[in-house]
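Q: Given only this backbone (384 positions), what sequence would you predict?
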């Protein structure tokens, strides 16, 4: 093997480990498309030089149950921080170059507290998590943080509605504070969108539509394994897509947005009006209450499908993930949306799977971590 070819093979192996984290030799062979002997030659050389290491614990099992050895970049060669700033708390995950999560944690702040206070809480949290995990940020590769509401980079020159404008400005402050303290590449995105990426990563799908029914309705799109941002960084804001026939005034200033039907406050109100006992009530729902819940479920599912149908037609996703506290009130919602979408497509086989969330803790921060790996991978490809 000539030196040029060998270098090219090495780059492929390193890129695969950087993008995917630790992998067994068999998995690595599939990822880089090298013959067994070529791969062995390259990995032996990289191992000898300490660029990559063998991890002692493997998850992939082969044959008689002995874990397959996994190869990874030297764990100390890069660290990643994923953050999720929510309205009243911040969550963090810290990982190394093998994509191994070293530590995670959360801390709270007062609702509406100023951003410099939230940043201090975040800094203390990061320090605490790193110390507990014995993690050092000697080669911090990327910091990625989620914020509530859309984050539109200054270059996009977009005027957002007033209710979003605040989180946009806050996003700038967060980015500056983080990069100022750590001196590492720092990116910001909407935390709902980052949760979409965490879901795609968890289920291993490349194309996914995510919709979160909480105080507002947010969403995210993953295509070909990456987050879709769109021209103005507003891709996936399905909460403000209009529902035909609806006229309710939305906080964005428009009428009939999906949010005016499917957000938590609206669903709670609809349940109350239909006579459903408040959530947490000790008495089980009687027949009448169950029928009322069913009615609200039908209404919300119908509105969601008005918005989802063209999105599904346009993107042909493998999964539609519905998340958020509304699912607790309307447990039948997923099935209802699945059925409605089934009725619409060509054969029924081309319909996305509708499911609830798989990642139920630190989803925004884990998505931020993944976005950090992707950003770093993209940058590495741009420079080599
Ligand atoms: Zn709206």
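A: Predicted residues:
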């Amino acid at each position: 093997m000539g030196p040029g070819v060998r270098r090219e093979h090495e780059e492929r192996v390193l890129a695969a480990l950087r993008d995917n984290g630790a992998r067994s030799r068999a998995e690595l062979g599939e990822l880089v498309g090298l013959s067994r002997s070529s791969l062995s030659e390259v990995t032996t050389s990289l191992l000898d030089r300490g660029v990559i290491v063998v991890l002692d614990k493997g998850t992939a099992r082969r044959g008689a149950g002995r874990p397959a050895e996994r190869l990874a970049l030297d764990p100390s060669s890069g660290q990643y921080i994923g953050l999720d700033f929510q309205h009243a708390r911040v969550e963090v995950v810290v990982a190394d170059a093998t994509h191994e999560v070293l530590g995670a944690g959360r801390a709270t702040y007062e609702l509406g507290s100023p951003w410099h206070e939230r940043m201090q809480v975040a800094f203390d949290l990061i320090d605490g998590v790193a110390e507990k995990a014995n993690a050092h940020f000697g080669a911090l590769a990327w910091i990625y943080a989620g914020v509530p509401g859309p984050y539109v980079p200054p270059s996009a020159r977009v005027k957002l509605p007033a209710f979003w404008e605040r989180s946009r400005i806050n996003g700038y402050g967060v980015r500056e504070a983080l990069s100022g303290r750590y001196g590492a590449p720092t990116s910001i995105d909407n935390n709902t969108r980052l949760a979409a990426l965490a879901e795609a990563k968890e289920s291993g799908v490349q194309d996914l539509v995510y919709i979160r029914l909480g105080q507002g309705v947010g969403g995210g799109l993953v295509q070909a394994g990456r987050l879709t941002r769109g021209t103005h960084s507003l891709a996936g804001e399905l909460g403000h897509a209009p529902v035909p026939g609806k006229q309710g005034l939305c906080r964005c200033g428009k009428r009939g947005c999906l949010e005016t039907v499917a957000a938590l406050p609206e669903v709670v109100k609809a349940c109350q009006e239909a006579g459903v006992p408040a959530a947490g009530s000790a008495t089980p729902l009687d027949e009448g209450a169950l029928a009322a819940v069913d009615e609200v479920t039908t209404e919300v599912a119908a509105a969601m499908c008005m918005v989802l149908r063209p999105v599904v037609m346009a993107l042909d996703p493998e999964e539609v993930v519905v998340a958020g506290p509304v699912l607790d009130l309307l447990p039948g919602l997923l099935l209802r949306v699945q059925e409605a979408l089934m009725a619409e497509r060509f054969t029924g086989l081309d319909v996305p799977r509708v499911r609830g969330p798989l990642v139920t803790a630190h989803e925004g921060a884990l998505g931020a971590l993944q976005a950090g790996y992707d950003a770093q991978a993209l940058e590495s490809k741009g420079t080599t």
